[in-house]
Amino acid sequence: MRLWEQSEILYRDQIKEPFVKVPDWNSLRANWMTLKRIRTVQRKCNYLLHKWDMADSSLCECGEMQAIKHIAETCPIKMHEEGLTKLHEGRAAAVKWLDELQIRLWLFLSNCVTCLWLEAISNNIFEFLTMSRSTICLFDVDGTVTDPRQPIDPSVRLYLIDKLKKKSLIGLVSGSDISKIDEQLGGPEHTAQFDYVFAENGLVAFKNGTEFKRQTIVDYLGEEKLQKFINFALNYMSKIQLPVKRGNFVEFRTGMINISPVGRSCSKIERDGFEEYDKIHNIRKKFIESIKENLPDIGLTYSIGGQISFDCFPIGWDKRFCLRYIEDEFKGNIHFFGDKTFVGGNDHEIFNDLRVIGHAVTNPRDTIMQLNNLFNK
């Protein structure tokens, strides 16, 4: 019991004694085992079976990712309508739900020792399998797997997670923070399907959905330099005339500062309009040149990314920063896909890094085409 109390099992607080049947329980052993699998998140569902190549898809009948939490809580077809607390109590409604549930979450093994062993290692099996793959594909987000600042096309997401992941580890590296990546990928449950996610160029790093490293720009610059830089940027933007200006011109992130002359709260139409205006008038390029001229010792470097902004971060903290976490494991087998690979673009440095095999793409469709050419030869 002490191990149970100290564990980080998802539903632990709702279960006082996980191995004791609740009062009045009189159901089949199969249902009791199913309830235990829900309690301990030991799952035989499409999410895991697909990773083991035992199912064609990781999706549920309702179209969402079929993980144990989804089945029990949110699936419009299969969820327990009285909620998880009542399910854990194992009363009549819970027994009925378990009886009718078509998906069995436990493994039909006759050897009890083998069953216990498999249960103990099931959460580590996929990590073991993926570690045997020697290649990783890293993707920029905007313009590479999604259209700029737009949600990912479900067919692109399905291709990356259900098909490519069987052949290579997959990762994302973006200048955006994790909340924006989650938004574009369709939610954190989808972002977590990527083996690695490097938000803010890797200054906030995730592996298998769990954060394992974080760096901050405040610690690097100090408050005095930081305010000097922000004051200069705001003063510069107050003097430039654009077709439109909105709000959120300076966005402070964990490892960088994002500057948007038009303002990040602009609409999609205004965003597209600024991008075309910037191509003619070089608003962002001139802005960066002015910062370099007036603040030569600030210790930052700059890269243009997306449609409306540019990133400012300590020298060496561009997208190459994330490579420190994977270069030893995947030496010579790191593929990077990005659309802003030109000089000054935020994919340029990592695209040209000797540790990386770079692939310049134009949009998500081009990304899929190049992946097919690479892995289906």
TrEMBL record:
This is Phosphomannomutase. Pathway: Nucleotide-sugar biosynthesis; GDP-alpha-D-mannose biosynthesis; alpha-D-mannose 1-phosphate from D-fructose 6-phosphate: step 2/2. Belongs to the eukaryotic PMM family. It comes from Aphis craccivora (Cowpea aphid). It catalyses: alpha-D-mannose 1-phosphate = D-mannose 6-phosphate. Homodimer. Its cofactor is Mg(2+). One of its GO terms (molecular function) is metal ion binding. It is found in: Cytoplasm. Keywords: Cytoplasm, Isomerase, Magnesium, Metal-binding. Involved in the synthesis of the GDP-mannose and dolichol-phosphate-mannose required for a number of critical mannosyl transfer reactions. Its main location: cytoplasm. One of its GO terms (cellular component) is cytosol. The lineage of its organism: Eukaryota, Metazoa, Ecdysozoa, Arthropoda, Hexapoda. Pfam families: PMM. Mg(2+) binds at residues 140, 142, 339, 351, 353. The keyword Magnesium applies. Gene3D superfamilies: 3.30.1240.20, HAD superfamily/HAD-like. The active site is at residues 140, 142.
